[in-house]
Amino acid sequence: MTVAQVAGVLDARIVSGADMLDKSVNSACGSDLMSDVLAFVKDQSVLITGLINAQAIRTAEMMDIICIVLVRGKTADESMLSLAKDRQIAVMQTYHSMFTACGLLYESGLRGESRKNAARSKAAV
Predict the structure, then answer these.
(1) N or C: which end of the chain has fewer CB within 10 A?
(2) Quick one: fold of 3-124?
């Protein structure tokens, strides 16, 4: 799935990173707790969150997350968008709840990383 397809599925508005719409995403993670996101296995993921501060961008950067979806109609401020642009992270907003956004993406074929799969991936390394 591409960033553009994520936006389409979620009826989301791209607020930063319109030049990244053709980038592929492999999985998704929904959380407002960045500590949970840090425990998530990364690899070109989408972060679905209601957190609208720089910590979301910094966490996304550390975890190789290429797209952040802000849920519940939340809006990023200019400092968050500037940081996202500098880090080449797409940001979009949707009026869907986190639960609905995750469900719509799952229904469209985008999966999250399960703990079981994460353990297998780490054991293979």
Answers:
(1) C
(2) 3.40.1390
